[in-house]
Structure formats: structure tokens, C-alpha cells
Amino acid sequence: MRLSYQILSITLILAFFISQPTFAETNGAALYKENCAVCHGNQGKGGVGVPLALPDFQYAISDQFLERTIRNGRPGRVMPAFKNLSDAQIQAIVRHIRSWAPGKPIRHPSIEVSGDPAKGRNLYAKHCAACHGKNGKGGKGTGVTFSRPRDLPIIAPALNNQGFLYAASDQMIKATLMNGREGTPMVSYLKQGLSEQDINDVVSFIRSFEKQAPARITQEPDHDNLTVAYESPYGMKETIAALKRAIIGENFRIIRIQTLDNGLVKKAKEDHNKIIIYFCNFQLLNNALAVDPRVGLFLPCRITVVKRHGKVMVYALNPKRLSYLFNNDELNKLCDGMSEVYISIIEEATL
Amino acid sequence: MKKFLPFLVLILGLSVSNQSQADDLLMARTNRDFPEAMLKLQDSIRNHGYTVSRVQRVDIGLTHSGYVTDKYRVVFFGKADLVTRLSNNYPQLIPYLPFKIAIFAEGDETLIVAANPLQLTDKAYPELEPVMKKVERDMLEIFQAMRDD
User: Fold this and answer.
1) Distance, CA of B76 to CA of B53 (rounded, Å)
2) In this structure, how many other beta carbons lie within 10 angstroms of the beta carbon of residue B147?
3) What's the average model confidence in pLDDT over A21-42?
4) What is the dihedral of CA A217, A218, A219, A224, to 10 degrees?
5) Phi, psi of A212 (to 5 degrees)
6) End of a domain among A212, A231, A249?
7) Which end of chain A is less crowded, N or C, counting CB atoms within 10 A of the terminal residue's CB?
8) What is the pLDDT averaged over residues A83-106?
9) Model pLDDT, residue B17
10) Do residues A276 and A250 lie in contact, with contact meaning Cβ atoms separated by under 8 Å?
11) Is A13 among the domain residues?
């Protein structure tokens, strides 16, 4: 009898764990920490991402805006699309975000705003482009400035972004322009002297971005090679010397030359047939970190020279292949440029 | 009861751990400031059986050249035999060895970022997959431990 009770209770416990979405799955705080905190901060104060906790933001947006933003992200503007989260998980995250600003968010009527996009274009150029960029492409970099001073304490989001335009209703955009967001550089344009009709015109102009969507470079990895590899006609020493000259010729500084297994094996055992050259250009470095602080993962620049099977080979990673990791169009451009620099250095040294 | 226990533990384990998805870029934030986070990261890497081979400054020279920036390092790590074996047999992996995790300050908190090592797998070399899966598992644990502070 006792045994069957035990079996019953175990069965019940098992049934609970199998049928229920588990604690970790629908615990909004845990899901937020796992998926969002790295960019938006543990308390929603921002970071690589914009702040989410500000009352003026929270009251002005609907749950649907949050849900759609999480599901679809902002393609090319760092914010990822969370395709793998279930609806229940996304709703749990939204509840967690809402806990920072208790109170009822505004419910915008779903009527479209009607305005004159041509007039809106001029107003946009005058009042908005300085922060949100020409054609709404967003400021340089993203999120809140913590470690590196930039143009603004919070970088203005992209408004021509398909993810934003899909999530935001006309009324939400209008409310943002009417009221501004206290605690951010985004001010109330009613107070700045625009009329409600002016604001409607600007909203119509922003909505018109939907039709002229910039052709997006896909987020998929291009299956270009992971690695750039060249054979050098010279010996190890000569190849390294030629690379050093080419690196300096491209305006970089040599930072360090070491073996591949340096620090992994005893000094005397290091393999001098595998040599890493690290180099860097401060302006490029500073630029890249401002566009996306995460890119330091692939810096400083590096070329590796290896002698294998009697041949001297030169290897570099392929920035073009890696840039998709960051979902950042601005960074893609930098990475394309970097790919060319690597190739031109290596070609010059191995010709 | 005893007989069922391992089974129960297994089910529990499965239901808790299945949340990790194969993300291409691993990222985590910790409440610790930079020096503390750096200590914890290196300990955690060592506890997973790797050697920290070098800590490379990324902000090197930036401040000297008049740029303002916060602390930024890349921590390189590996196992001597693994790095040798991989670099000998799969030269396309050479630029990605040793493995690395970037760590940088954001105010009084710290972020870590790494590329998922599974990206180094290649359909042409199926034997690489279990090797990288193991490295991935270790890295996921290292990242989770940083989040859990």
C-alpha cells in the first residue's frame, strides 16, 4: 500500500514536470536575465541596448509593441529576433519588464495618423535627422553610453527599421513625439513648438519608410570561408618580416609577436613554426568599439604564419564571415573594409 | 523509492537544462566590477580544465592616444594538446586558436562575449563536432556562472 502511494506521488511529480512549462521556461525574471540583461541591463537601465525601465517609455507603449519587438528584433540594429522563445515565454518577459513601472500603459486607438509625408520630410530633416540619421537609419552605435563617450547619452534608435515599423503603431509614434521621453534626449515636440498637424506629417513621413525599406544584407552567415589562407613563397623569417612591413605600410602598429602555444606550454617547448602577429590601428579600434563594443572579441587584428609540410602559410580570420554574428549593419561595413585590409596586407607580403 | 530517484533526477535535470539554445554569440552580464569579474572568469576557465594562456589588452594605447575608454581585455585559453592537435589537423581553425572570451567594463558591471565554438565545426569534418560540443558546453557553463552572481 505504501509503495503504491509512493508510485502515485512520483507519477504526479513527473507528470507535473513533463506537462508544465517548467519554472525556468516561464519565469520572466530568469528569462530576462538570460536573454536581455546583457544589453538592456539587469534593471532595464540600458547598455548596448536602450533603457526599458523609463516610465515615459513604458506608459507610451503597448504589450504588443514589446512582444513584436522581442519576436522580430530590429534587423541590422543589434537587437536580435528571439525566434526560439515561445509565446508564453515572451509574455513572461513582458510581465517582468512591466514590473519596473507599475501602472496601466496607454491604450492607443488603432486609427492611423493622416498627415502629409512631403511636409513631414522637411520637418524631419530639420528636427530629427541630427539624432536619428538621414532617412531614419539611427545614430552611430546603439544604446546607452557607459564606457565610451559618444555623441549622445542615449543613441537614437533607427526609425526606418522594419522591426520598429512593424511593432510601432502610428499612435505610439505620435505619442512619443507629443510627449517625448523624460530622462532621454528625446524631447516633446509639442513643447518644441511643432503643432499637432506638424507631428502628424512627421508620423506619415516615418511610416513612408516602410515602402522604401533599405535592401538588407541577410543575417545568415555568408558561407564564405571562415579563414583566409595564402601560401608564402618565402621562409618563416622572411614572411614575418614582409608582413611587418606591409602592416606598417597600411598604417597599423605591431603590438605583439608570439607563438601560437605561448602560455600553454613551457617556453622551451613553444612551437616556432606557428607565429601570431598582433597589430592595431587606434582610430579604427575606437571607431569599431563605438559602433559595437562587442567587436573587441576579434581585436586586435591578427595574422598567423605557420610552416606546415614544408610550406609557409599565412592565415587570417575572415571578418566578412563573422560580422553576421552581431546583427549590426554599420559594423558589416567596417568588417567588409577590414577583410580588404587583411587581404591587401597578406597579398603584399606574399607576392 | 530509491529505484526511482535516479530517473527523477534525470527528468529534473532535463527540464532545467533544455533552455539553452544554440546561440552563435554567447553573452553575459555580471554585477561584479571589472577586476572581480576578471578573477572569477579566469577561475572558472581553469576549473573547467583549461589553461589561461594570455590576457590581451584591447584598449592598449587608446587612452595614450587621447581616446577615452573603459577596461577591455580578451582572455585566451586552451589545452596544450588540444590546440596543437586542432592547429595541425585543421589549419582553417588556426586564426581562432587558442579560444577566447572578451571581457569589458560597463560602468560598475562587466560584460563577457564569445563566439560559439560550434561555428568552427564543418560538415566535411564530422569528427570535429563532438570536440567543439564539449568546448561549447564548458563555455555555456562559464557564461551561466557569470550571470548567476
Assistant:
1) 6
2) 18
3) 85
4) -90
5) -110, 45
6) A212
7) N
8) 90
9) 35
10) no
11) no
pLDDT tier, A20 (very low <50, low <70, confident <90, very high otherwise): very low
B97–A47 CB contact, under 8 Å? no
Residues A208 and A228 in one domain: no
Region B2-147: CATH code: 3.30.310.70
How many Å apart are CA A344 and CA A350, to the nearest integer?
10
**Spacing of C-alpha B16 from chain mean position:** 21
Distance separating alpha carbons of residues A48 and A263, to the nearest angstrom: 32
Judged by phi (left if over 0) then psi (alpha if -120 to 50, else beta), residue B112 lies in: beta
**65-94 in chain B: CB under 8 A from chain A:** 65, 67-70, 72, 74, 76, 78-80, 83-84, 87-88, 91-94
Cα distances (angstroms) measured from residue A71 to each of A59, A61, A95, B55: 21, 16, 15, 37
Taking CB atoms and an 8 Å cut-off, how many pairs form between chains A and B?
Answer: 166
Question: What was the pLDDT predicted at A19?
Answer: 46
**What amino acid occupies position A243?**
L
Q: Residue A255 in contact with residue B64, Cβ under 8 Å? A: no
Q: Whose grid coordinates read 507631428?
A: A199
Distance CA A217, CA B111 (A): 27
Residue A46 has pLDDT above 60, yes or no: yes
Cβ of B15 within 8 Å of Cβ of A84? The answer is no
The verdict on B125 touching A (C-beta cutoff 8 Å) is no
The angle subtended at Cα A325 by Cα A322 and Cα A329, nearest 5°, is 90
What secondary structure, in 3-state letters, does chain B show? CCCCHHHHHHHHHHHHHCCCCCCCEEEEEECCCHHHHHHHHHHHHHHCCCEEEEEEECCCCCCCCCCCCCCEEEEEEECHHHHHHHHHHCHHHHHHCCEEEEEEEECCEEEEEEECHHHHCCCCCCCHHHHHHHHHHHHHHHHHHHHCC
> Does one domain contain both A155 and A251?
no
